[in-house]
Amino acid sequence: MSEGHPERKPRRFPLQLDRVSAAPVAGGAARLSRDGREVLRPQAPLQHAAQERLRHTTPQGVGLDSLRVRARMVERLAAEGISHPGLLHAFGQVPRHQFVDSALVNQAYEDTSLPIGLGQTISKPSVVAAMIQMLCARPGLPVFHAARPGSEARPLGACLEIGTGCGYQAALLAHLARQVVSIERLRDLHLKARAQLDQLRQSLPGWPDVRLVYGDGMVGHAPQAPYDTIIAAAGGAALPQAWLDQLAPGGRLVAPVEDARGGQQVLSIVDRLPDGSLQHSRAGAVLFVPLKSGTT
Ligand code: SAH
């Protein structure tokens, strides 16, 4: 041991207990052991990475522990019938507070829709969850039930989202799909979503990518078609033909659409059966922003 033989070089490996610090040192200040030597902190880079990761997923200066409130939101969704394990996991991963205006951060994990600028809104978590869960159900089953035999989740595969908005739903979809293409017709929202998703990708290693497109989603996105799943966050008088054309055999589309008498929106579900034919069904009443043509 070095204490008994001062002339010997101090042993650096394996580390002696008094040279290892258990707690991270704020600000990276050097910590000294009792004999005045600098304590080696082999875990420091890992601890700094973990702190940095937390810093990016926790709202600053609002006294809100986002991880805990996010976990509570996930518990609420599960209690209300969301049973897709991957979907619940995605809701636990995506920091919703980072997608809304800083003035609204305190409401980010409430079950409420919130303004995202330019007259658009981010839907409430329970609606987003119900729609994505519908997208995951097997053809012929409008609803997904984790506990029901034979109703295991459909992989979202190549997924097209119409209406990127702030990018929150796109981030959720990216955790479940092989590939996500998301279109937005408002340039400012498209650019804001791009900046937000880029920042998440840079700060959180392994964060899945989304292909964001600025354009009119009424025509879908032919270059990457067909899609296994299509989901729209804006509703019009009818489903655009392009969406149906770009739906792959075995694929499913979920979108709000005005009912025949006009006015009220309902969720429309379309399955393209393996033989190529389309099967339409409907779910409950919803209220989404209007689907508009053209770009701004
Ligand atoms: N999924 C979004 C919800 C945004 S609200 C989110 O998580 O934030 C719906 C969005 O659809 C709005 O941003 C609106 O501009 C957009 N939208 C409406 N019509 C569109 C169209 N034809 N093509 C692309 N986006 C459209």
What does this structure look like?
The structure is a single chain. The chain contains 7 helices and 11 strands. The protein is an alpha/beta fold and 296 residues long. It has a domain at 126-290: 3-Layer(aba) Sandwich (Rossmann fold). The strands form 3 sheets. The chain has a 7-stranded mixed sheet with strand order 5-4-3-6-8-9-10. Strand 4 (179-184), helix 6 and strand 5 (211-214) form a beta-alpha-beta unit. The longest helix has 17 residues, at 187-203. The radius of gyration is 24 Å and the shape is globular. The N and C termini lie far apart (73 Å). The model is unreliable at 1-7, 13-33 and 54-64 (pLDDT under 50). Its main location: cytoplasm. It comes from Aquabacterium commune. It is found in: Cytoplasm.
Number of helices: 7
- The tally of beta strands, per DSSP, is 11
List all distinct small molecules, including ions and cofactors, that are bound in this structure.
S-adenosyl-L-homocysteine
Radius of gyration: 24 Å
Give the amount of beta strand, in percent. Answer: 15-25%
**What profile does the largest beta sheet have?**
7 strands, mixed
- Broad structural category: alpha/beta
- Provide the residue-averaged pLDDT: 83
CATH fold name of the domain at 126-290, please?
Rossmann fold
Low-confidence stretches: 1-7, 13-33, 54-64
Secondary-structure arrangement, i.e. CATH architecture of the domain at 126-290: 3-Layer(aba) Sandwich
End-to-end distance: 73 Å
Q: Strand order of the main beta sheet, please?
A: 5-4-3-6-8-9-10
CATH superfamily of the domain at 126-290: Vaccinia Virus protein VP39
- N to C succession of SSEs: HHHEEHEHEHEEEHEEEE
The proportion of residues forming helix, as a percent range, comes to 25-40%
What is the CATH level 1 assignment of the domain at 126-290?
Alpha Beta
Please state the overall shape, judged from the principal axes of the Cα atoms: globular
